[in-house]
Write a structure and sequence with these properties.
Elements (H helix, E strand, L loop, with lengths): L1 E4 L4 H11 L9 E5 L8 H17 L4 E4 L11 H7 L9 E2 L9 H16 L8 E4 L19 E4 L1 H4 L4 H10 L18 H10 L1 H20 L5 E2 L7 H4 L14
Parallel strand pairs: 1-2, 1-5, 2-3, 5-6
Antiparallel strand pairs: 4-7
Helix pairs in contact: 1-6, 7-8
Length: 256
């Protein structure tokens, strides 16, 4: 079984196009989009996925499936709901005062384990491990791992096999006649760059206001537990005091 962890960002979109064009070293049986919640995924990501990715996959006979975290009781909590409900820990990698990002369990809980569960439900095992493709390009090669950590899953990196960079992925998408794919991330992700926050404030002011409230709620919770506050940016100040509306030139290139 060969599956691809479809993040719905730039690199994932490029892999989808490469499969449609028959250019992958080996095709995938299914592309799996682990949706962390319609209230948590960035609305631009969801819009592109449903209006562009889904029709494109159908047109080219590609199995693209949306999967979600399901608890044993059958409920499907979103990442935002889970983050607000957890009174003892912070599930997203918020920034510590005087230090780097805190512990991150969101990717494992809402992406990695969700896809592995689908694989196991469809026949993967220690004796018959599933392949999980990841959209890591050459400029992110340091993120590639050789071991998934699971005996029933191996990892695959099609963009590394083809020696493609992120800029190549943009070209692949453009030449396929698709609109530019947005960066894939939760709208409240602490790994956002400053310009990501500015863009959110300009284009989705309601979500920016929710981010301000989320940061305040989680910070108050930390203090009630006798711990230091945590922040959505590395500035260690409230996000509404850090993020302005100024558009800056991004010399590092786009993220995806």
């Amino acid at each position: 079984m060969r599956t691809f962890s479809f993040g719905a960002g730039v690199q994932s979109t490029a892999v989808l196009v490469l499969q449609a064009q028959g250019r992958l070293p080996e095709p995938y049986d299914a592309f799996l989009f682990a949706n962390v919640g319609d209230d948590s995924e960035h609305p631009d990501t969801l819009r592109y996925y449903r209006e562009i990715h889904v029709p494109y996959a159908e047109k080219h006979g590609i199995h693209l499936e949306e999967v979600r975290k399901v608890r044993r009781d059958g409920t499907t909590p979103t990442l935002l709901e889970h983050t607000l409900a957890d009174k003892r820990s912070i599930r997203i990698p918020m920034h510590l005062e005087g230090g780097g990002p805190g512990r991150r369990s969101c990717t494992a809980d809402y992406k990695i384990h969700v896809i592995r569960k689908w694989q196991r439900q469809h026949g993967s095992s220690r004796e018959n491990p599933a392949v999980c493709g990841l959209g890591i390009s050459m400029d992110e090669i340091q993120r590639a791992r050789t071991d998934s950590g699971f005996p029933d899953q191996t990892l695959d990196y099609p963009l590394l096999d083809l020696r493609l960079r992120r800029i190549d992925c943009y070209k692949i998408i453009e030449e396929a006649g698709l609109p530019p794919a947005p960066k894939s991330a939760c709208w409240f992700c602490p790994f956002h760059r400053r310009e990501d926050w500015r863009k959110l404030k300009r284009e989705h002011p309601d979500l920016f206001t929710q981010a301000v409230e989320l940061e305040r709620t989680l910070g108050d919770r930390r203090e009630s537990l006798g711990k230091d506050r945590m922040w959505l940016t590395a500035s260690n100040r409230p996000i509404d005091q850090v993020v302005d509306d100024q558009l800056v030139l991004d010399l590092d290139g786009p993220d995806g």
